[in-house]
Write a structure and sequence with these properties.
This protein has two helices and nine strands; from the N terminus they run H-E-H-E-E-E-E-E-E-E-E. By secondary structure, the chain is of the alpha+beta class. An eight-stranded antiparallel barrel has the order 2-3-4-5-6-7-8-9. The protein is globular.
Length: about 120
């Protein structure tokens, strides 16, 4: 139960954002130019993700490894992941950027969102 709660916090918590508006990223090339070779972080949860050009996702959250795969489909970031044996279901997400922050909103923009810092 605690792990499920932590997972919810890590992957669906919004951080305070600046007043600068978020702009949608609608293609893979733009997305990779922003996140390629960089860490995506939510420091308070010990979350660091790397979204790689080869279609893989690696990282750690709350001390456990994250692994996954991603693709760009019809203007959305689609991924499935595993958090140290806990599957994170396939989902296509709206992606938006504002300065050094990137926001992922599940269910093609209709669900919860997470804001991560780009480092």
């Amino acid at each position: 139960m605690l792990r499920r709660f932590a997972l919810t916090l890590i992957f669906f918590s919004a951080l305070p954002v600046s007043v600068q508006a978020f702009e949608r990223i609608s293609d893979r090339t733009t997305f990779m130019s922003i996140v390629g070779e960089k860490d995506l972080r939510i420091a308070v949860y010990g979350l660091t993700l790397n979204v790689r050009d080869d279609g893989t996702i690696t990282g750690r959250a709350a001390g456990w490894d994250i692994a996954g795969a991603w693709s760009w489909e019809n203007g959305y970031f689609c991924r499935d992941m595993d958090w140290s044996g806990y599957p994170i279901e396939y989902n296509c997400q709206l992606v938006e950027v504002s300065g050094d922050r990137i926001r992922f909103t599940v269910d093609q923009g209709a669900g919860d969102d997470a804001v991560l810092r780009i480092r």
